[in-house]
Amino acid sequence: MLFLEILQRKTTSKNSKENSERKSQEEFFHIFNYLYGLEKQIVITSDSPPSKIPNLMERLKSRFEWGVIVDISPPDFETRLAILKKKCELENIKVPDEVLEYLAKIFTKNIRELEGALLTLKAQADLLKIPPSLELAKKVFKKYEGIKKGNLSFKQKDLKITNLNEDIEEKIHIIKKSVANYFNIQVQALESPLRKKEVAQARHVAMFLCREKLNLSYKQIANYFKRKDHTTVMHAIEKVQKDKNLYQIAQRILKTL
After folding, report:
1. DSSP H/E element including 219
2. Count of domains observed in the chain
3. Which strand (E) or helix (H) includes residue 190?
4. What is the per-residue pLDDT for 144?
5. Is the C or the N end of the chain the one with fewer CB within 10 Å?
6. Are 232 and 94 in contact (CB under 8 A)?
7. Span between the terminal Cα atoms of the chain, in Å
8. Which of 158, 160, 225 is nearest to 194 (CA)?
9. CATH of the domain at 136
10. Is the per-residue pLDDT at 201 higher than 90?
11. In this predicted model, what pLDDT tens digit does every residue of 42-75 receive, in sequence order?
12. What is the domain range of residue 242?
């Protein structure tokens, strides 16, 4: 009830920007106290410590400083390399050290991006039926080379965003290709209106994997499979979850991605 009342007050407010910011902080102050009173764990992230946040109310600063303040920095090269080696061990992936070092050098932002690069390389190698190599890695991730944090022109930033979109499309293509190979059909059939049993099942599995592996929204998946209605995707995913055979096939393919 408290959160509903706060939301109603926030959405009906017509104050100036300054008053609105102050009001938001007051509301957050009450939310904080409410959760603290219930002995709930509260995790807050920021690009600055509480004392350095501009225009922050003193009583909020004092409450934020009650807990443990930790500076979370991007992992250094040695840590990134160790993470990749551990991931290879857990996933039983055999990748030469020179390839892992290459990945650790060009993917510096976060762990998810780093592990995603390793799995993408493995998927590409599996599709081509060749072992992961430095040559393949450079071919797959060529677009990431030379991009340095904090040293991008406006056009380079735009290019980087485009590359991220292309990366998603590339991963979706890998999923489609893997599923099509498994069901022995053409990739184009997954996007077609064909309703043959083997095509429909393959399409359901591919949609399920896009959701499971890439965490895309139903609407995004519908667009990538040329479907107008996202409920088609919801139905497909539900089919796989309820069909034991399709679910096992999906899990089998998922392990190769």
Report:
1. helix 218-224
2. 3
3. helix 187-191
4. 63
5. N
6. no
7. 44
8. 225
9. 1.10.8.60
10. yes
11. 888 877 788 888 888 888 888 888 878 877 777 8
12. 164-256
**CATH number reported for the structural domain that contains residue 197 in this entry:** 1.10.1750.10
128 and 195 belong to one structural domain: no
Is 231 exposed, middle or buried (CB count within 10 Å of its CB: 0-12, 13-18, 19+)?
exposed
The confidence score (pLDDT) of residue 228 equals 85
101 and 129 assigned to the same domain = yes
SS3 99: helix
Is there a domain that residue 152 lies in?
A: no
Q: Whole-number mean pLDDT of the chain?
A: 80
Shared domain for 61 and 100, answered yes or no, is no
What is the arithmetic mean of pLDDT over 165-194? 85
Dist CA 52 CA 62 (whole Å): 12
Residues 61/50, Cβ–Cβ less than 8 Å = yes
Residue 155: pLDDT band with limits 50, 70, 90: very low
Q: Is the pLDDT of residue 229 over 70?
A: yes
Match 């408290």 to its residue by tokens. Answer: 2
* Domain match, 249 and 173 both: yes
Cβ neighbors of 86 (< 8 A, separation 6 or more) are none
CB contact at 8 A, 133 and 99 = yes
CA 175, 180, 183, 188 torsion: positive or negative?
positive
